[in-house]
Design a protein that fits this description.
By secondary structure, this protein is an alpha/beta fold. The chain has a 6-stranded parallel sheet, sandwiched between helices.
Length: 364
């Protein structure tokens, strides 16, 4: 059954590190409430949208994501065709698609009225945040060498290809009418994070109260010494080569739960990288101002400020600082292991294990 011409499909394509995880953490737990409000999240589960983005971008790696992953895009299309209402597809990796892939995706959703939704922020913040995200995925590239290219490969997502709003607009804007491209800018400084959800819900045409926005979470940043420590740990890691292992152990267990809580100092990349980001932001804003897109918020907030507060660079991190972070991390991990062992060992077994240990020592 074809998709209805009366259906509106909102394709949220990112950009990465612009609150996409926050929005998805609200919308997926509220899936039934959205459905009751007439908005479908198609697919069997959240990961289907990631897999769909890989299929749209012709990434053969989707075959390694499980036996059902290569059929994710078919499931999404079938669910929308069976639905009498509007739909939302959301994953930040869609933005890396080529112009031809973007056009093909829109055509496959036809005759639905397709809307492209882009969440954006200034490119300097994107560069620093995306570098941290790459570290959480086992990358070892120093920040000084990061973001030095514009890839031609749609499979490359941690690159200016997906971080430069101007480049993304040039590929995606021709696929839909200008009024159907919705650009959501950052909230003003000091605003609550719920502003992003309220703006997103407004574009989708739903009441923000439809979902519990308190379920959303923001990806927090590591400090400069913590980030450099993780980068060096990655250089010595063996294994952790699949996405699930990296997500569970590197991103969540190590980075988000143990390194981020340390706090730490914020940082900037090198001076020439800052200037490159500033030029990219200016070009993107000029492009937006010349078009008839639906802009939600202040487009000037996509610019890198002329005056930036002083911050360190990761290259300034000393071996002593890395050692300090690493020692604290070892102590924290030992405490984690002890608590886990205590929970797994029934109290009655503890004396028995101690006795066996003493016997083993005496027998040495």
């Amino acid at each position: 059954m074809p998709i209805s011409a009366s259906t509106q499909v909102f394709v949220h394509i990112g950009l990465p590190k612009t609150g996409t995880s926050y929005l998805q953490a609200i919308s997926w737990p509220g899936r039934q409430q959205l459905r009751d409000a007439g908005l479908l999240l198609p697919g069997a589960r959240k990961s289907d949208h990631l897999f769909a983005s890989m299929i749209v971008r012709d990434d053969p790696g989707v075959a390694r994501r499980g036996p059902d992953a290569p059929q994710a895009w078919e499931r999404v299309l079938a669910d929308i065709a069976d639905w009498d209402g509007n739909a939302l597809i959301s994953h930040e990796f869609f933005c890396a698609a080529s112009a031809a892939q973007a056009q093909r995706m829109v055509e496959q959703l036809a005759p639905a009225e397709v809307h492209v939704v882009i969440t954006a922020r200034d490119p300097l913040g994107l560069l620093a945040s995306s570098w941290q995200e790459s570290l959480k995925n086992k990358a070892t590239t120093p920040l000084a060498d990061y973001g030095r290219s514009e890839s031609d490969d749609p499979r490359d997502v941690w690159d200016w290809r997906s971080l430069d709003l101007g480049l993304v607009l040039r590929r995606w804007a021709p696929a839909v009418a200008p009024e159907r491209l919705h650009l959501i800018t950052p909230a003003p400084a000091g605003s609550g994070r719920e502003v992003l959800w309220e703006r997103f819900a407004g574009v989708l045409g739903i009441d923000p109260a439809t979902c519990d926005s308190s379920r959303g979470f923001a990806n927090s940043s590591m400090g400069v010494a913590e980030a450099e420590t993780l980068r060096r740990v990655n250089e010595r890691l063996k294994g952790f080569n699949n996405a699930r292992a990296r997500g569970v152990w590197l991103r969540s267990f190590l980075a988000d739960e143990r390194l981020v809580p340390r706090g730490g100092e914020p940082f900037w990349p090198a001076t020439d990288q800052v200037e490159d980001a500033r030029r990219r932001g200016a070009r993107a804003v000029e492009l937006v101002r010349a078009a008839a897109y639906d802009v939600v918020g202040d487009v000037d907030l996509l610019l890198v400020p002329d005056d930036l507060p002083p911050r360190r660079n990761p290259e300034s991190v000393t071996d002593a600082e890395v050692a300090d972070v690493a020692l604290d991390l070892v102590a924290t991990l030992l405490g984690d292991l002890q608590r886990r062992a205590d929970r797994a060992t029934p109290p009655a077994e503890v004396p028995t294990r101690l006795a066996r240990l003493r016997q083993a020592i005496r027998g040495v």
